[in-house]
Amino acid sequence: MPSMLRLAAAAALAAIPASADVPQVVADTPVVHSLVAMVMGDLGGPALLLGQGADAHDFQLRPSQLRAVKSARLVVWIGPEMTPWLDHALASGHAGQDLALLGLPGTFLIDYDDGTADPAGSHDHGEAHDHGDTDPHAWLDPANAALWVGAIAGKLAALDPGNEGTYRANAAAARDRIAALDAALTARLAPTPGKGLVFGHAAYGYFTGHYGLAVAGSLAEGDAADPGAAHVAELRARAEAGEVACAFPEAGHDPRAIESLVAGTPARLGAPLDPEGRAAEPGPGLYLAVLDGIGTAIADCLAGD
What we know:
By secondary structure, the protein is of the alpha/beta class. It is 42% helix and 10% strand. It folds into two domains: 4-186, Nitrogenase molybdenum iron protein domain (Rossmann fold), CATH 3.40.50.1980; 192-303, Nitrogenase molybdenum iron protein domain (Rossmann fold, 3-Layer(aba) Sandwich).
């Protein structure tokens, strides 16, 4: 007899819409799933490929998930910069449509190396343009998420015109909720500019840039990078010199490296951060919980200085 876990996974993948006209939708990550769920509302639920605890950068689709991708009328995903394994699946027989959020015109993008802005769609795609250094964690800028829910609503409305009004109303409500949280975080984080923060890896540039927070560095300089000894020693020296206010471990990662980095220094150890929503309960509220969790952890740690 199948285990309860297998039954639950099968039910999540099925995600039968409330109406036969509502398209079957698949989302790659918990954050994307949350944004799509906000737009779909009571009409139906998107299927989620990455469940709780799954690592977006090291993942293999199960056969049932591959079938779900191929049969979906719409796949909403961050893009190959975040989930390259889904790019391969889409190329191997998906007959429906897909929406790669990082590629949407108007999306604000930064690079890992220098933090420079790169608004999507501003380049001539006939020219070679390497996005290999693009930081894919663009949802941590709430302006991007507000843009994306509108695009998701537009795509769903095109596939399901009979429910266009609901999709667009849900997207408007989602933008209002995002704006309200953004305003609250702006007010809460406003008194903290200039205090250096250290993160487990370089995933927070969109968040810190949006809220004007100073970053002293990141232990790992990319999603798949391992910190070098010289880099760790440099961060440790900055912490010992009082240049680091707080350092934050990350959900799903061993916290000992961050703990060791700040041990015996003036820097404070903050609560673990969860930028991808890996530890959160999937659903429409997850995206706002991710932003609020990061903002609360940073504000609380800085308040202890």
